[in-house]
Structures are given as structure tokens and as C-alpha cells.
Structure prediction request, 302 residues.
Amino acid sequence: MECSEALDLLYESFDGQITPVQQAQLNGHRRTCFACAGTLAKAQRFQDLLRRVPQLTVPRGLEARVIERVLHRTPGAATQEVNVIRPSFSWRTLARPAFATGGVLAAALAVFFITHAMLGTFHRPTDETVVATIQGSLQDVAPNNQTHEIDSTDAPLSTGEILRPVGAAAAIVSITPHLALIMSSGSEVQVSKLHYDQNSGLADQIYLKLHRGTLRVNEILHRDVSPVHVATSQATFVPTGTTFAVTATTGATDLAVTAGSVAVHMPGRVFSVIAGHGVHITGSDLVRNVLLGKHPKVQSLH
Prediction:
């Protein structure tokens, strides 16, 4: 599907004019095209903003009074037929101002700039942005401190953004087909570094900083994919194709490895933790090995 076809389907979807098959094609395109995914996300947020705008009602009889006044003030108007044309709203005409002229074009441009300011968009470098699939609700804080909510959709994710689950339920963030992150309620994860290789079409650098809470990672590695890096204030964890969980609390970090192994990088030392084991870290030199299920602060993913 070409980008122009995807945009046409997007605007038609807002008017309820596409079939389930076309919706599936649109969803498939947005997972592979960063440019369209960003446009789709903005348009959907714009639609949500419009839904929140209070609906104004026109006083009864206003239309007739306006027509009557025009007829009285226009010479010879008494013999003219007056046609009242009520404009209809369409996402296609709103989002494609090139088809408009005069005042309609100016109004469309005004809506664009106002919406751009309201959404608080920031520059997303192409090589530092991927399209992630979100399950659940997340609060996304951009580097310019603008905040918005993402609710079970595909959305662009860039370096510097901070993610927080909304409500009591966990949220799942699938950054690549091989990497899924499960964020527990109350957790906060910052995307420290994200790099997208346009030649290979893969994210080759994913560095995360867990500020608080529990982050569960399920990653399946192969030769063309670099492992995710998860850091806390005590250590950095690099998996070798595994399933693990990291919990950050004040002054401590807990690691629980369910499958595979995880390399733990600390100041002056590096060691590995294999499946069925974990570590409790309270400082640069204070590390305690634990078996899963034997330590209250380390929990299995199963």
C-alpha cells in the first residue's frame, strides 16, 4: 500500500466509510511506515480533541432573521431566490487543504496551527524513532514536557520520551517484533537512546532507564538484532535472548531471570545471572544472589 492510499483510508475511516478489510490494510501499513504512523497518531489525537469541543447551539429562528435582514438591506433582493447552504464537515476536506480555496483554506490552515500547538508535537528524528504497538494505557511525556495518553494503538516512540502506565493495570509496549516490555502499574521508564537503522529496517539500539517500579522484558534475539539495555541507578542489564524482570526501588534494584541469562554491568565488575536466579543490589559493591521464590523482593514472571 502506498502512503497516499493509506492517508486516503485514514480520512475515510474518520467518516466511517471504510470496510474491515481496508482497516486491516491501514493497520498493517502503519506498522511498517514511520511517516504514516506519525501522521495517523496526530490525526487520531486531533479527532479526540474535536470530540471534547463543546457543541454550540444556534438560537431558534436566527437563520430566518438573518435572511430577512439581508433581504431588507439588499436592493431588489425581494425578487431574488435565496439558497441557504449548510457546510458539511469532512476529514478529507479538513486534512487536505490543497483542495480548498480562499477563506476555507485560511480556516483549514488556522485549524492546523492551533491543533499543532495543542498537541505539543516535538521533532522526531527519523533515525531515533520506531513505531511501537501499545496494549493498555500509557502516559507519554515528550522531551519538551508535553504530555498525552496513548491507548491501545500503534504510536511513534523516540529518544527521550518517558512512559508511565495509566491506572492499576499493566501496559505492554512492543518496540520490535522480537521485544516486548511489560510495565507494571506505578512504573516509569525513560527511553534513554533509540536508534533505527533505515537500511536494515530494524531498531539497533534500545537503551531504557527504569526510574521506579517493575519492568518485565521478553526478548528473542537473533544475529541481526542488538539486545535491549535496561539501566537503574545501581546497574545496567543486558540480556542474551531471555525473559527477565527488573524492579527499581529507592536505593535498591532486583533482577529476576526466568529464561536465558542476563549480563549485569556495575562499576568495576560484570557478571551473569542465569535462569532461575536473581540478584538483589543495594549499592555498587553490595550484591546478593538469590533463587527465585526464596527472596520476597524478587518474583518470577510466571
In short: The radius of gyration is 26 Å. Residues 258 and 301 are 7 Å apart (CA to CA).
